[in-house]
Amino acid sequence: MHILVDADACPNIIKEILFRAAIRLNINITLFANHFINIPKNPLIKFIQVAGGFDVADQKIIEMVNPEDLVITADIPLASAVIEKKAHALNPRGELYTLENIQHRLAIRNFMEDLRNSGQVTGGPAPLNQRDQRAFANALDRFLMKLK
Question: What is the pTM of this model?
Fold first, then answer.
């Protein structure tokens, strides 16, 4: 099992949780972003910088993900592609995307995008808070323990 992180928009606190879990459980983790990200010096933790551009990191993740890997992303279309490849996707707020919920999440995402494009909604999600951080850490631990 490998953890792949869509790191461009991943909050730093979530990355720190992931680094600690990777080291504690001896799990490889790779971060993907189109800008440099500082990572701990540890052979379990890698960083791949991709070219700038729309969805370049997402495409690299899809190319590299294998069944049973875990992808950390808030990008619902990426999560859907990951699930199609028989891998798992977890968002930074602790929601595990599944075959059962991904279509509904895609529909909501597309609806909200239509509202934003029409100017009816201009904001995005609320900033990550401590409750979200705990939810993520707990969901990650549950997922990793299930695999062990």
Answer: 0.88
